[in-house]
Amino acid sequence: MESSQNFEYVYKVIMLGDCGVGKSHIMQRYVGDTFDEELDATIGAEFSEKIITLSNGVNVKVQFWDTSGDEKYSAITKSHYRGAHGALLVYDVTDYHTFLNLESWHAQLEDTLDKYAKIVVVPNKVDIPNKYPRKRKVFIEKANEYAKRKNCLFYGECSAFQNLNLRKTIEKLCEEIYTTQMECIQKGIKKPEGLKITREEKIYQERRKRCCN
């Protein structure tokens, strides 16, 4: 649920997957409820944020980092993984190679994220096989099996174009992040991160100021 109120916690969520799987469109659709078919490919990483209200009434600010799927930007994108509380692992249901490449993307997360981070598998572009069934290259059972094998979350197939299942997927991820982080705080494993602005956001805001002035 979207909220315009203040927030208690800040969660960093990164988005990974091959070029063209629709990561930028997912962020654009969820944060701004728009879909620009002419959206340029991400160079390095793009940042956006949204305050949402969890089912228990707690407001959290979610910082989305849309990372490039282009190998030449890997050094830049990997630097944004650090400190993430969650991740969206995105593939295109009409391109089997993007599904196979989840292995390498997941391996990068295992090397960077701490064990308390939550990862959700996001099959995107389901609107295409819904209209043209022969274009489907990855069936939902594959995604479900992969998520179970990798101990990832999975809430069904999505479409940024038609805005199908994105809100449910992202907000359930945030619920899982909240539950896990609260358990860590209660056990003394982590410190509360309320009203915290990440280093990456500070850098991004400074760049925007210099660009716009």
UniProtKB/TrEMBL annotation:
InterPro entries (UniProt xref): P-loop_NTPase, Rab_GTPases_membrane_traffic, Small_GTP-bd, Small_GTPase
Q: Which CDD domains match?
A: Rab (cd00154)
Recorded protein name is Uncharacterized protein
Name the protein family.
Answer: Belongs to the small GTPase superfamily. Rab family.
Gene Ontology molecular-function annotations: GTP binding; GTPase activity
Highest taxon of source: Eukaryota
PROSITE patterns assigned to the protein according to its UniProt record, in alphabetical order: RAB (PS51419), RAS (PS51421)
- One Pfam family, please name it: Ras
